[in-house]
Amino acid sequence: MHIAVLTVGLRLEGCASLKEKRQRLAGLRDRFGRLPSVAVCESGEQDALQRAEWSFVVAAGTRSIVDRQVAEIERFLAECVDARVGKRELDLL
Fold it and tell me: What are phi and psi of 20, to 5 degrees?
């Protein structure tokens, strides 16, 4: 079993309310939370309007599957989320 924990910090420019923040980031849980090999949560900065921290845990039988899933998450964050990616931390277990 191979496991990766990806933690990303996001900057939400111009975000004026927690409701707006949740709407802008809802796609993360919707897209990756339904996958059987991925667990996703807002892991920090819950009360900050213009910052967020999200963690993704990916588990699979092979390292290549884990690497592909992490790459897909990072691509989605860079291209489809209305936020700028700041810190990125990847731990392989």
Answer: -65, -40
Q: Which domains does the chain show, CATH number per domain?
A: 2-92 (3.30.70.1120)
Query: Would you state the structure tokens that stand for residue 49, as one six-digit string?
Result: 């309007």
Note the pLDDT tens digit of each residue in 33-80: 888 999 999 998 888 999 999 999 999 999 999 999 999 999 999 988
Residue 12 is encoded by which pair of tokens?
Answer: 């939400």
Strands (E), 1-93: 2-11, 38-44, 51-60, 84-92
Edge-to-edge, what's the strand order for the sheet holding 2-11?
38-44, 51-60, 2-11, 84-92
How far apart (Å, rounded) are the C-alpha atoms in residues 93 and 55?
A: 15
pLDDT of residue 71: 96
| pLDDT for position 6 | 97
**Burial class (CB within 10 angstroms; exposed 0-12, middle 13-18, buried 19+) of 87:** exposed
